[in-house]
Design a protein that fits this description.
Blueprint (H helix, E strand, L loop, with lengths): L3 E7 L6 H11 L5 E7 L2 E5 L2 E4 L1 H7 L1 H5 L3 H8 L5 E2 L6 E4 L6 E2 L3 E5 L3 H9 L7 H13 L2 E4 L2 H10 L8 E3 L18 E6 L8 H15 L3 E6 L5 H7 L5 E4 L5 H5 L4 E4 L8 H8 L4 E4 L2 H6 L4 E3 L4 H13 L1 H18 L2 H16 L1
Parallel strand pairs: 1-2, 1-6, 5-7, 6-8, 8-9, 9-10, 11-12, 11-14, 12-13, 14-15, 15-16
Antiparallel strand pairs: 3-4
Helix pairs in contact: 8-13, 11-14
Length: 360
C-alpha cells in the first residue's frame, strides 16, 4: 500500500492546549502516512533559511489594531493571503484557525470557531468581523474535509455556516496517550491543582478566592498548586506567604504537577477544548470544572458547576477533599473514558481512512 504524503501544519512551540493537541496528531500519525511538517510560524525555506512568517510579527502588535480595523487585523493574523506551494504532496492538513491558501486538497481542523475564540479570548464583536467570516465560510466550503474535535464544534460550525455540507465534517478528536507516571500518594493532605495561563478566562480569580476559604477551613490538610504566567501581583504576594500554596509563573512540565495532584480545578469562563483536563483524567485524577458543553463531552464524569458559581465550586471541592472514595471512583471512570474515546490507534485509523477517501 502506497504511503500518503501529507503536508501538515505544526506549531513550533506547544505553548497552550491547542498547539499541544496538534503535536499529538503529528506524533501518533497513521501507519501508512508520511507527515511533512510545515511550521506555521515560518514560510517555506528560502536559500536554506527559514523565514519568519510576518503574521507572527503582526500578532505581537495585533491588539493595537483590533479596535481600528478588526476585520483586516484578524485575517492577517490568521495567515490569509499567504500562498504555499504544495507540489509533491497528496493532501494538506491544516490546524486551528488557519486561513493560508494551498493548491492541493485541504483538510481544516476546528476545535470551535473563530467567533467563539475572538469573543471570549479577545473580546471582539462578531459584527466587526463580517469579512473574516465570509472568507472563512468560502475556505471551509472549498475544503476537502473539515475535522471537528467535538460534536459541539460541529454543531457550532453548522450554526454559523448552515450551507456547509454536513457530511464533509468529521468528528475526530486529537489523540490522548496514557502517560505512565508514578503518582505520589499524599497521606496527610489533599493536593488541588489550578492550571491556566489565560488567568481571567480560565477562572483564576475565582479559584484563588475559593482557595483562601479552603485554607481557612482545612489548614495544612490541603495543598494548593497554581500554575499561570499571568497571576496578578496582589494574588501572588498574598499566596506567596502561605506555606501550603505553590505559585508557578514560569514554564514547567505539567506532568510533574500531575504526579502530586489529587483534584484538578478548572472554573473556566470559556473553553472549546481542554487538553490538561483530558490529561489529568487519563491519569485517574478527578476534576471539578465549569459546565460547558465541550467539557461535558470530553470529560463526562467530572463534577460540573455553573460558570462563576463560587458557592457551588467551593462545596464541590469540600466534597471531594473529604471523600477519598469518591475521588477514586470519579478518577477511575474518567481514566477509562479517555482510554476509549481518545485512543491513538483508533484515531489514527480514522484519519487514514479519511485521507484515502479524499485521494482515491
Amino acid at each position: 500500500m502506497n504511503k500518503i504524503k501529507v503536508l501538515i501544519e505544526m506549531p513550533l512551540l506547544p505553548h497552550s492546549g491547542g498547539p499541544a493537541a496538534q503535536l499529538l496528531r503529528f506524533k501518533y500519525k497513521p501507519k501508512n502516512v508520511e507527515y511533512y511538517p510545515l511550521y506555521v510560524e515560518k514560510l517555506p525555506k528560502f536559500c536554506d533559511k527559514g523565514i519568519i512568517n510576518p503574521r507572527i510579527f503582526y500578532g505581537l502588535i495585533r491588539r493595537s489594531f483590533d479596535w481600528i480595523v478588526p476585520d483586516l487585523s484578524t485575517l492577517f493574523t490568521m495567515g490569509f493571503g499567504t500562498f504555499i506551494n504544495t507540489k509533491g504532496y497528496d493532501i494538506v492538513h491544516t490546524m486551528e484557525y488557519s486561513f493560508q491558501l494551498y493548491n492541493k486538497p485541504t483538510i481544516y481542523e476546528r476545535s470551535g470557531l473563530p467567533t467563539y475564540v475572538l469573543r471570549y479570548w479577545y473580546n471582539i464583536n462578531y459584527n466587526n468581523l463580517k469579512l473574516t467570516f465570509k472568507i472563512e465560510k468560502e475556505i471551509l466550503k472549498r475544503s476537502a474535509a473539515i475535522i471537528a474535535w467535538t460534536k459541539w464544534a460541529k454543531m457550532l460550525i453548522l450554526k454559523y455556516y448552515p450551507s456547509l455540507n454536513d457530511e464533509k465534517i468529521y468528528i475526530i478528536p486529537p489523540p490522548a496517550p496514557i502517560y505512565l507516571i508514578n503518582r505520589i500518594k499524599n497521606k496527610d493532605h489533599v493536593t488541588i491543582l489550578f492550571l491556566g495561563d489565560d488567568f481571567y478566562r480560565k477562572g483564576g480569580d475565582i479559584a484563588l478566592k475559593i482557595f483562601k476559604n479552603l485554607i481557612l477551613k482545612y489548614k495544612n490538610n490541603i495543598k494548593i498548586i497554581v500554575k499561570s504566567n499571568k497571576i496578578p501581583y496582589n494574588y501572588k504576594s498574598y499566596f506567596n506567604k502561605i506555606n501550603n500554596v505553590k505559585i508557578i509563573d514560569h514554564f514547567i512540565n505539567t506532568l510533574q504537577l500531575y504526579k502530586e495532584t489529587d483534584i484538578f480545578f478548572l472554573p473556566t469562563r470559556a473553553d472549546n477544548y481542554s487538553m490538561p483536563l483530558i490529561e489529568v483524567n487519563s491519569l485517574g485524577i478527578p476534576a471539578i470544572v465549569s459546565d460547558l458543553l465541550p467539557l461535558r463531552e470530553t470529560s463526562p464524569f467530572s463534577i460540573f458547576c455553573k460558570i462563576n458559581d463560587e458557592k457551588a465550586f467551593y462545596e464541590s471541592l469540600c466534597f471531594l477533599i473529604e471523600n477519598e472514595k469518591e475521588r477514586k471512583a470519579i478518577g477511575s471512570k474518567s481514566k477509562q473514558f479517555v482510554e476509549e474515546k481518545f485512543d491513538p490507534i483508533r484515531i489514527s485509523l480514522e484519519l487514514e481512512k479519511l485521507y484515502r477517501s479524499i485521494i482515491e
